[in-house]
Amino acid sequence: MKIAILGAGESGVGAALLAKAKGLEVFVSDMGQIKEQYKAKLATAAIPFEEGKHTEERILEATELIKSPGIPDKAPIIQKVIQQGIPVISEIEFAGRYTDAKFICITGTNGKTTSTLLTYHLLKNAGLNVGLAGNIGESLAEKVIEDKYEYYVVELSSFQLDNMYEFRAHIAVLTNITPDHLDRYEYSMEKYAASKLRIARNMSNSDYFIYNADDHTINHALDAATISGTKVPFTLQGKAEAAVTIEEQHIKISIPSYEGSVDTSKSSLIGKHNQYNTMAAVAVAKLLKVSDKDIAQALETFRNAEHRLQEVGVAREVTYINDSKATNVEAVWYALEGIKQPIIWIAGGVDKGNDYSSLVDLAREKVKVLVCLGKDNEKLKQAFGRVVPIIAETTSIEYAVRLSRSLATPGDVVLLSPACASFDLFKNYEHRGQRFKEAVEKIVLKK
């Protein structure tokens, strides 16, 4: 076999290393510049690569192509590959061929990273032989080279799911489906939802599909889907068919291998969305027979990912929270809903066609100041000008933090939760979150 790989980031290089390890002929091509760390890996493994171009003749010689999730199918080079009848797959699909480990796969528009990290933490804390991979930032293919784990917890984006065909999850989790990345799906929610449901492909009745029964889009999509795995719905709204519910800080579970409740009172996660994430993760743990005691202990020690409702400091009884990963309205709704104190809200950036109407009531109830951080803030000002007492705008995150500190009173929360992409002022949401943390440390905590 000749394997061509488009994209030399984490997933592409991981796939290249696995292909090389399995004795396949492999060539890597990236239209952009390849990071030095990845060049070094390719060079060490003697894998030929190119950057800044795609040599079509060489790519079209392949018997199979593995593409980066970030490359859309409508890209000209992908169209030519498809026209030649060359199969196009994802790194995850490729990696799945070379291991007998069981996969716990997690997707959703929001919450998938937290659910993935929490699930991994619960299983690892209980002593299971488990690895972490996928959209979280670690190549599954590269980990499969050594293949030392019995289980892998894998975060999957819709883009990764689109090019998966034979891959099978033993346990699949779908946290929610809300509008996002619709430009990749012809602006169709039905097509986007169908992409998410690919996580349950190829299941048998010995596998499990854990999903949010309160999500209308999921329920609608399930009406048209055939899922062979055993369904494990979870709910906060008391849906009668649900197998997982929450009652007074206890998660109640009714599944074939377990009937009972798990204490979540020591968990540091806040907000309704994190109750959903916790239900999903605990359901996975119970399906894998983790004890109630081990789950309760792990919930107490879990710390969320950077830039996701991350407390970065407290000064003068004011708490500063970095939620830079909240790049859409739904994620911000969960942040505002989950915080009970008065909020100074820092938001803005590159608007993705946002409809802010769902946030208006929460802003009226909880937000005392809105600091618009972006080059174009008109849409935010129009949406919240009549409900938030004070609105300011800036293109400086340092000024945003300084202003927030000056307007905060004891008991307030200063929340960076942008609802927008970061590319007008920052490299990405991580850069934005890091700059916020640095500003808090410099302006607030050292004063």
TrEMBL record:
Alphabetic keyword roster: ATP-binding, Cell cycle, Cell division, Cell shape, Cell wall biogenesis/degradation, Cytoplasm, Ligase, Nucleotide-binding, Peptidoglycan synthesis
Transmembrane segments: none
Reactions this protein catalyses: UDP-N-acetyl-alpha-D-muramoyl-L-alanine + D-glutamate + ATP = UDP-N-acetyl-alpha-D-muramoyl-L-alanyl-D-glutamate + ADP + phosphate + H(+)
Cellular localisation: Cytoplasm
EC assignment: 6.3.2.9
Record: residues binding ATP: 108-114
Pathway annotation: Cell wall biogenesis; peptidoglycan biosynthesis
Gene3D superfamilies with a match to the protein in the record: Mur ligase, C-terminal domain, Mur-like, catalytic domain, NAD(P)-binding Rossmann-like Domain
Xref: Pfam families: Mur_ligase_C, Mur_ligase_M, MurD-like_N
Single annotated GO MF: ligase activity
Source organism superkingdom: Bacteria
Function according to Swiss-Prot or TrEMBL: Cell wall formation. Catalyzes the addition of glutamate to the nucleotide precursor UDP-N-acetylmuramoyl-L-alanine (UMA).
Name under which the protein is recorded: UDP-N-acetylmuramoylalanine--D-glutamate ligase
Natural source organism: Pontibacter saemangeumensis
Gene this chain is encoded by: murD
